[in-house]
Fold TetR/AcrR family transcriptional regulator.
Amino acid sequence: MGRTREFDEEKVLDAAMQLFWEKGYEATSLSDLTSRMGIQRPSIYSAFGDKKELFEAALRKYTMSRASHVRTRLQNNPSVKEAFRTFFEDVVAEEYTESRSRGCFCINTMVELAPHDEKFEILTREHQMYLSVIFQETIERGIQSGELETGVNAKALSQALIVSLIGLTVIMKSRPKRSFVDNTIKVILTLLK
Amino acid sequence: MGRTREFDEEKVLDAAMQLFWEKGYEATSLSDLTSRMGIQRPSIYSAFGDKKELFEAALRKYTMSRASHVRTRLQNNPSVKEAFRTFFEDVVAEEYTESRSRGCFCINTMVELAPHDEKFEILTREHQMYLSVIFQETIERGIQSGELETGVNAKALSQALIVSLIGLTVIMKSRPKRSFVDNTIKVILTLLK
DNA sequence: TGAATAACGTACCGATAAGTATGTTATTCA
DNA sequence: TGAATAACATACTTATCGGTACGTTATTCA
C-alpha cells in the first residue's frame, strides 16, 4: 500500500550515470544530481541510498551495458582482425565527434576512486578482466578459423589489447591530433597476426 | 624590506604535489594542504595564488621532473630494447611496492581535469607529446646503431609505446594480478624489432 | 633607530556540501 | 470508505568548502 513511485528508477539512474560519467564522483553534487535526475533529494536517498551507493549503482549499470556492447561488436564480425580494427576505430571516432571527451566511466573511476576504495578497485578490475576475456575468446575464434597464427598467445595478446585500449581512451582526453591515435591503432593492431 | 619568508617554496610545493598526486584536485581541501605543507592558508595564497594555480604549479613541477627522469633512464642504456624493457618493468615494480597506487600525476589530471579545463588539456597533452619525442629519439638511436630494423616507423611506434604505458599505469590502479601486467609488457615490447 | 613593509597566525566570511526531519498528498486494502 | 502507508516537496541541520580581513611580529633600509 501507499503512494506509487512517480519516477522511472531506470531512467533516473541513467541520468545519474551520465552525470557521474561526465564529472566524476567528487565534482558531482547532490544538487547537480537532483536537477539532472528530475527528482528531489529524499527520493534519491530512498531509492538508491547515499551518494556513493548511487554512484555504485550507476557504475554497475554502465559496466553491464558496456560489456554487452563490446561483446556483440566483436562477435558480429566474421573477421577477427576486422572486428578489432572497426571496434578500435569506432571508439576513437566517437570520442572525436563529441565536443568534450567523457572517455570510459569505468576507467575514470579506476583513476579517481580505485586507489582509495577497495570496492571500486575490485569492481573496475573485474570489468576490465571481463572485457579481457571477451577479447581472448575473439582471438581464439580467429585462431580456430585460421585467420590468426596458431602460435598466438591469446590470453597475453588480449591483455595487451585491453591495456592499449585503456591508454587510447585516456590520452584522447587531452585531445591529441587525430593522426596520433590513428598511427597508434595501426601499430597496436599489428600485434594481431 | 619586510619580514623574510620562513618556509622553503620548493619544499612546500613538493608537499602540495604529493598530496594532489595522491588525492586529485577535487578531493584535496585547503585544510589538507595547510597541514601537509606545514604553512597557513594566507601563506599559500600569497606564494602560489588560489587552489587551481597551486595545483598547476605542482603539476608543472611534476612533469618537468618526470620528463628528465624518463630521459636519463632511456639515454643511459646502450641497448634500446633493454632500456625500454627495464623502464617498463621498473614502472610496474614501483607501483606494486607501494601499498596503494598513485600512478602518474599527469595521467590522473588528464582524466580528472583535461576534459573540463583547456589549460590542463594542453598541459597534459604537451607532456605526453614530449615523452613521445623522447621515446622516438631512443628508437631512432636503435635504428642508427643497427639494433632495430631500418624499416621501423619510429614516430608511430613511440606513440604506441606511450599509449601502452598510459594503459599500464591506469590499469595498475585496479591492482590486477602481477602476471597480467608482466604478460602485457612482454607483448608490447615485441613491437620493438 | 624608527618608519615602512611583508610574512605571519587567528579568526572570520558567505556559499555550498551531504544528509534528514517534517508535514502533505496520493494510493492501497481491509 | 476510511485507516494505514509510502512517496512527495519544502525546508532545515551541521559541517566543511575556498577564500580573506585584520591585527601581530619580524625584517629592512633610510
Q: What stands out?
A: Residues 11 and 37 of chain B are 8 Å apart (CA to CA). Chain B touches chain A through 51 residues (CB under 8 Å).
